[in-house]
Amino acid sequence: MVITLAKAFLWLLSLLPAWAPLWLAERLTGVWMRLSPGKRHVTEVNLQACFPEMSEADRARLTRDSFMHYVCSILETGRNWYRPMKVLHAQCEGNVGMDLLQQSVESGRGVVILAPHFGAWEYLGFFMQDQADMAILYKPPSNPGMEKALLEKRRRAGALMLPATASGLRQFFTHIRAGKMGGMLPDQQPTAGQGHFAPFFGVPALTGVLVTRLVQRTGCIALFAACERLPGGKFRIHFLPAAEAIHSKDMTEALTAVNQGVEACIAIDPAQYLWSYKRFRARPDGEPPLYD
């Protein structure tokens, strides 16, 4: 019943004009911040840790703007799920680094697109499905009904959706080895035993080793991608090269390169990153927790 109501609500949101999600988000941000003190606290802690030189007034503005973009991403889901693909593609106002993507695909080595929680990352997934034979790795939700709904909508443009399970990862590696393209999130905190600490804005962050293992075992090219949200319901896609150190056999060097790529995406517009995520939940031995 809950899933049905949620889908009906998203369908209603899909009827809104393209400019409406951001317009509404600007007006709902204050309410959302009051209703989400926990997320607000996490955002403030993360910004303090990552931008210690920033003034309190600037961090306060960045906190509010970050919440606005988070609300907007929720309101955009209806259009992403229910509007025709040609309508969605028309919202793309341009791209940066498309030649880099094309050269990487033409190399035949396989390409992994590393897309952090920045801007309109849901829209980015649909955009990428129109570029090549795409496989997207996802973390299965605990609710089977929710997973079914997500898969139904997210693969409607033809992507191969693979769960981050043992069998799904095997298929993902095989897909990349065949010279095809895959997409995954590089900034999720991994489960125990699946990560090492590496600096993220100078702060030790438990970082997943899957990206570096994939690059080393397949020899694929790693690119970062970010979908910048623009006024008027438009988007701009950015493709950025990964630092050469991502191929390093030294795990700390390779994972530092992964986090530097995420930082480069955030630099496009820091307000559009999902700062409410507990990126520093795990701490090195002896270090105090950040989110108490």
**Run of helices and strands:** HHHHHHEHEHEHEHEEEHEEH
**For the largest beta sheet, what order do the strands appear in spatially?**
1-9-8-2-5-3-4
- The fraction of residues assigned to DSSP E strands is 15-25%
Integer-rounded radius of gyration: 19 Å
Count up the helices: 12
The low-confidence parts are none
Q: Helix fraction?
A: 40-55%
Number of strands: 9
Structural class, by secondary structure, is alpha/beta
Cα end-to-end separation: 36 Å
Multimeric status of the protein = single chain
What does the average pLDDT come to?
Answer: 93
- Largest beta-sheet characterization: 7 strands, mixed
Which of globular, elongated, flat, extended, rod-shaped describes the shape? globular
Helices, strands, pairings?
Blueprint: H1 2-14, H2 20-35, H3 37-50, H4 56-75, H5 77-82, H6 85-89, E1 92-96, H7 98-106, E2 111-114, H8 121-128, E3 134-138, H9 144-154, E4 160-163, H10 166-177, E5 181-184, E6 195-200, E7 203-208, H11 210-218, E8 221-230, E9 234-241, H12 251-266
Parallel strand pairs: 1-9, 2-5, 2-8, 3-4, 3-5
Antiparallel strand pairs: 6-7, 8-9
Helix pairs in contact: 2-4, 3-4
